[in-house]
Amino acid sequence: MPGKTIGNALLLILTLVIACTWAFPIYWAIVTSIKPEQDVVNKTTLFPDVFNFSAYYYALFETKLSTWYLNSIVTSVTVTVVVILISVMCAYALSQIVFPGRKLLYGIILASFMVPSQALVISQFVLMHKLNLINTWGGIILPQLIVPVVVIVYKQFFDSVPKELREAAKLDGCGEFQILFKLYLPLNWGITTALAIITYIMAWNAFLWPFLVTNSDDMMTITVGITQTRDAFGVKYARDMAVAILAAMPVAVAYLLFQKRVTQALMLSSGIKG
Amino acid sequence: MIAPFLIAYATVFAYPVYKMFALSFTDAPLVGEGQWVGFDNYIRLFHQKLFYTSVWNTGYFVVLTVIPNTLIGLGLALMVVRLKGWMQSLILVLFFIPYILPVSVVTQIWKWVLDQQFGIAQFIIEAFTGGRVSVFRDPIWAMPMVALVTVWWTNGFNLLLFIAGLRNIPHDYYEAAMLDGATRWQCFKRITWPLIWPVTALVLTLQLILQLKIFDQVYLLTEGGPFNSTYVLLQLVYREAFRSNHGGLGSAVAVILFVIIVVVSVLQYQLLRVRER
């Protein structure tokens, strides 16, 4: 049917146009960042006449960007590793070990979905203050360690592992930790990568909590730090955009490398199995 | 084995939840002890104009984002799901990539795009209004623009859920309908819409709860201004607790937000269950 082919082609073009418009602000930010500062405001061209990376040089070497990078990397990697570790252990126990209060505990974890972490910032701040953790990596990390959805997703996956495997391992004399780390975790390696990447992206992107718990330039994570530079720069659009792009780079790369895993994790955590 | 999680859970989650309620009945500063004052904080809030402004603005923002975001997500999903192969992957990436950006990057980009003097979007604004508008300094434009930025930022996730939902609809249904001579619109109304409804309901729920918690974008784009036209509940929490050093009063606002979110979640859950039967 020729009519259908033309219709499909039109639809494709329309979708492509909308998609390009949608992504345009990102493209525009990139283009701006590689223009010389005077061209940014004088020549509104869709493509740079000259490629100029001075904004990146400035951002990397004349601001505290490298310090913020370090803070972001340390905190988000730690958050990711600890979240996965404690959640996987908790989920394994909930799924495989019979202990009193198991159902109740699972119910409590399910219910904590409803608690908006943003509403807890005051009491968490008070707590971090008592523990002397304001302006420290620990202070940034600790409140981000509770991600109930990771426990729940893991539990569902562990529930569906055949019971015979566990019994066989027990007969071979394996302890619970061995069964978890040598059997259950490798069996669910795919979901572990997915959850780890999404946790890492969320931790890297966290704004409110790191913003509240840090007030010294040297302790800020990159997402907080870059919002503080505006005044120092004056209005320098190319620099602003270069900084923004550098800040987004570690998540953008993680996403582009692991697209499938990212989408899988998002669907699992929202209750649709991918 | 559950000990590490439990310890963390109790310390940085359960205890703060309890503490939030406890603090809201005291006149505590941000850090330090306070006197028990009963419901004073709540009564004070109900006499404060800024509290009502914040409730109103939060509601306004929810209206501006939740339904448009859901409809746009569904619309885009219907377009994208018909495409095939690498073209579909490419387009999906273009739509999805804003979602993974940090909020500060998103706001930085949009401040530049909407910049009054040099922003490229001002060409469009000029075409409609005949002049440039400093959108984040204008009480009428500010909130809709924050909503626009939010929809742009978060839509990728909804799109993804809708695409997953659409892919789950068996192809035979459409083929059978086509054989019976159904038009595209009839197919959508009779097959797609009823079958995609559970996902739609899910997206609406997630959106509603998410957008009630708005703070970051507003703070970074407008700081609640101009003339408090974008002041929202979490910002009131931030202001009372961290700026004015009223930990107790700030906690009371947090409790109210918490209660609103729990009520909304429970209501939605019940509504969805009724629908499913």
TrEMBL record, chain A:
Pfam family, one: BPD_transp_1
The keyword Flavoprotein is annotated on this UniProt entry: no
Recorded topology in the membrane: Multi-pass membrane protein
Subcellular location field: Cell membrane
Primary location: membrane
Chain ranges of the ABC transmembrane type-1 domain: 69-258
Superkingdom in the source lineage: Bacteria
Transmembrane regions: 9-30, 68-92, 104-127, 133-154, 187-212, 241-258
PROSITE patterns per UniProt: ABC_TM1, PROKAR_LIPOPROTEIN
Keyword terms of this UniProt record: Cell membrane, Membrane, Sugar transport, Transmembrane, Transmembrane helix, Transport
Family per record: Belongs to the binding-protein-dependent transport system permease family.
Name of the molecule in the record: Multiple sugar transport system permease protein
Organism: Rhizobium viscosum (Arthrobacter viscosus)
